[in-house]
Amino acid sequence: MTHTFSLILASFIIFLKHNYSHLQNTLAVIGLIQPIGSIMPVSEMQSRFYCEVFAGHCKLPAIDKMKKDVERRRVQTEKRFLKSRRHTLEVDYATYMDELAKMVGVKPNLLKYWFTDPRLAYILLFEGLAPYQFRLNGPHAWVGARDALLGMARRTFENSRTRQTAETMKSKPINKFLYYLNMMKS
């Protein structure tokens, strides 16, 4: 059985050099990426971007801007990783997600949240990167995203407890670490 793409002419070969094609921008390959972080949120954000472009709510950058971006990424990749075909797919999770989120219109505005919801702003700035931070606003926002972010540390911490006793319920791991560190000094 042969797999073909009906949208690509049979006699037409797309020239690729290190996984980049400078002249073709009509085919999206979702998830063909190697983030330094989780791949599933990146694939979801790529899908959201594709759908927004396809629906006409978001436009692709001009071709010359895309070419400059490809060249910029190539130079960054060469500086950061070994020169190999494998590393052409590497991206930094946080930077890449922010870039896509900005294009889709779902990147959280930290300054706005700092004045309107300081607790949420603190979590966005100082706690882990959670994919649902990109569901706070913009297309396909989720009303539960704020609560999910606010409860993220509690859910993560409670899942790491082996059992719930009076002692474990009143202390957090960092407190125990400091306690044992103090005992080692004595």
From TrEMBL:
Leading EC class: oxidoreductase
EC number(s) stated in the UniProt entry for this protein: 1.-.-.-
Signal sequence, start to end: 1-23
Keyword terms of this UniProt record: FAD, Flavoprotein, Monooxygenase, Oxidoreductase, Signal
InterPro entries in alphabetical order: FAD/NAD-bd_sf, Flavin_mOase-like, FMO-like
A molecular-function term among this protein's GO annotations: N,N-dimethylaniline monooxygenase activity
Cofactor(s) required for function per UniProt: FAD
Protein family according to the UniProt entry: Belongs to the FMO family.
PANTHER family reported for this sequence: DIMETHYLANILINE MONOOXYGENASE (PTHR23023)
Protein name: Flavin-containing monooxygenase
Species annotation: Wuchereria bancrofti
